[in-house]
Amino acid sequence: MKAVLMSAIVAAAVLSAGLVQASPELSKSAGCVKCHDIEKKKKGPSFKESAVKYKGKAGADATIFKAITDPKGDHPEMKASADDTKTMIKWILTL
Predict the structure, then answer these.
(1) Cα→Cα distances 10→19, 80, 88, 94, Å
(2) Cα–Cα nearest to 45, from 71, 13, 67
(3) How far apart are CA 68 and CA 94, in angstroms?
(4) Angle subtended at Cα 62 by Cα 56 and Cα 66, rounded to the nearest 5 degrees
(5) How far is it, in rounded angstroms, from Cα 21 to Cα 15?
(6) 57, 55, 79, 58: which is closest to 68 by C-alpha?
(7) Does residue 44 surpass a pLDDT of 80?
(8) Which residue in 1, 25, 12 sits closest to 88, CA to CA?
(9) Per-residue pLDDT at 5
(10) Rounded Cα gap, residues 35 and 91, in angstroms
(11) What is the pLDDT of residue 8?
(12) Roughly what angle, to the nearest 10 degrees, separates helices 47-54 and 60-69?
């Protein structure tokens, strides 16, 4: 039983690491880097600044998703799919 549990944990870690590594590329292909940088403020906040702002807040990923995908909001339209956007948000929150 322990071996099965450990295998599941390792598999989950490998899969999530792949998603996190893919996110910088997703942010480039979606055009996010035109206004955002990982480290420094551009037109929009840095990804790290956003991570600090939402660190430890329940529902942070849903709050960010709504803010950047709401057509009535200030954020420009995203080129990324909803799933890719959620992946990028999860990555940003790990910074």
Answers:
(1) 14, 29, 22, 19
(2) 67
(3) 18
(4) 130
(5) 10
(6) 79
(7) yes
(8) 25
(9) 44
(10) 17
(11) 46
(12) 130
Q: Per-residue pLDDT averaged across 30-51, rounded?
A: 94
Give 41's contacts (C-beta < 8 A, 6+ positions apart): 49
Token look-up 């997703």 returns 26
Among residues of the chain, what percentage have pLDDT more than 70?
A: 77
Say if residue 19's pLDDT is above 90.
no
Compute the mean pLDDT over every residue in the chain, rounded to the nearest whole number.
Answer: 83
- Structural domains in the chain plus CATH codes: 2-92 (1.10.760.10)
* HSE value, Cβ hemisphere, 13 Å, CA-based, for 53: 12
